[in-house]
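User: Can you fold this complex?
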Amino acid sequence: MGIVISIANHKGGVGKTTTAINLSAGLALSGYKVLVIDSDPQANATFSLGLGKQEKTLYQTLVFQDNISKAIVQSKSVEIVPSSVHLAAFEKNNDVGKEFILQEQLQEIKDLYDFILIDCPPSLGALTVSALTASDYALIVLQPEPLAIQGMTEFVKILRTVKTRMNPDLDILGVLATSYNSRTVLHRELIEFLEKEYGEMIFNTKIRANINLPEAQSMGKDIFDYSPNSAGAEDYEALTKEIISRLTEA
Amino acid sequence: MGIVISIANHKGGVGKTTTAINLSAGLALSGYKVLVIDSDPQANATFSLGLGKQEKTLYQTLVFQDNISKAIVQSKSVEIVPSSVHLAAFEKNNDVGKEFILQEQLQEIKDLYDFILIDCPPSLGALTVSALTASDYALIVLQPEPLAIQGMTEFVKILRTVKTRMNPDLDILGVLATSYNSRTVLHRELIEFLEKEYGEMIFNTKIRANINLPEAQSMGKDIFDYSPNSAGAEDYEALTKEIISRLTEA
Ligand SMILES: Nc1ncnc2c1ncn2[C@@H]1O[C@H](COP(=O)(O)OP(=O)(O)OP(=O)(O)O)[C@@H](O)[C@H]1O
Ligand SMILES: Nc1ncnc2c1ncn2[C@@H]1O[C@H](COP(=O)(O)OP(=O)(O)OP(=O)(O)O)[C@@H](O)[C@H]1O
Ligand SMILES: [Mg+2]
Ligand SMILES: [Mg+2]
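Assistant: Here's the predicted assembly.
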């Protein structure tokens, strides 16, 4: 299948990494072969999968154009291209057309996987642009709070620019609301606003605020492994099913 | 007094902007003259103070070296140098020694204010480095969650590098825990860990999770204006007092 999905939003702390980890685990549990690419110098996805500092990472691929397969490691139910703090150098270097390196490298290995999920950093620089250029879909993650929603309009513009200039195949898979607390009026009102403004783009599944999600990260586990009966596991399982049906009906 | 404080952490969504807005309002309420510098292309601080798109912003100052005073506007109880999405260009341009521009510009106006608070983006690029180079203090903000804490060690290294190479006067004012929910075991355990690891650096004040804080942002108001009896107002008032006493005893 080789479907490449960027998990993105330049707003910080909205749940991109939490979604990359748990959606990839959910897809693996449904029998799919999944590769996670940690494209954030913070290396939160790498850490959340229980991996320490790795020697071969996305850094060598993007900055020295090493073959990406050299960096792939197995971690529980998925495979991962880890990140490292050195990856920040990719944002600054002047390598012409560098935003296309990841797309070229993924051509070689795409068909070995059903899904490739790319965890993006909270910025609109070369790392995010390179992920979107390599992707079939962008999955926008946000909290139903004013600052995250305000950032969304800006982010959708970037997606259009990447689609027009660099990757005509890029589509929006959907918009995911996370850390949702249905008991707070603000959250309910902003979800209503999003559903009116963006209609079908908003996933039916909302990821509820659930302390099991950061707890799982502190143990280097995904939510299904750490706490399979939690609201977090229930919601990421529902999201997995909803995404599979969106893609199979597409 | 002219004390310059960067509100920083490369981890996203930890409450940097929420702290920049509400600490500046708290200081203004205590009678101090405060300037906020929105150094994030997301312009969340600008939006949270109820300002729309501004013509003159930090962009012209950092990229074209316009005089920073031209960008200053009054907004309720504080003054602000707004941001704009164009500010992202500063991260990418090759202007030699650009990290020193803000420091030079602030020399001219420092003594017109008691406090200058700089809201930083979730990244370790030129915008954050330029803010730290211009600052007397860094105030590190984080949520008591594993990914935010893991980022802290990396961030403290950056602070040391800036102090050694670019700004020997830079000190850490303290570390602020935000979105704290004392009923969750994970948060209590990580606060204990932080207090053991970093001792006196951790502020006694913790900002509790309180929905009034994002609600205030949706109204373009600070917490004291929007909801003066809320836990959010109480905590930011306590933080203001604690910071003033840390600085007056220093
Ligand atoms: N549904 C949820 N319920 C409770 N906590 C959550 C939820 N989703 C994410 N979190 C927590 O919120 C914090 C931020 O999430 P995460 O790191 O996944 O966001 P991010 O968008 O990847 O951040 P960054 O912009 O820094 O990359 C983490 O500590 C995470 O464990
Ligand atoms: N103590 C708190 N209680 C509840 N919500 C909070 C609290 N502090 C911040 N928030 C909310 O969490 C979200 C993230 O906060 P904020 O934007 O201030 O973080 P940030 O570190 O500036 O993010 P970024 O890295 O994107 O700049 C916002 O919607 C904000 O309203
Ligand atoms: Mg992340
Ligand atoms: Mg911010």
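DSSP finds eleven helices and seven strands in chain B. Chain B touches chain A through 36 residues (CB under 8 Å).
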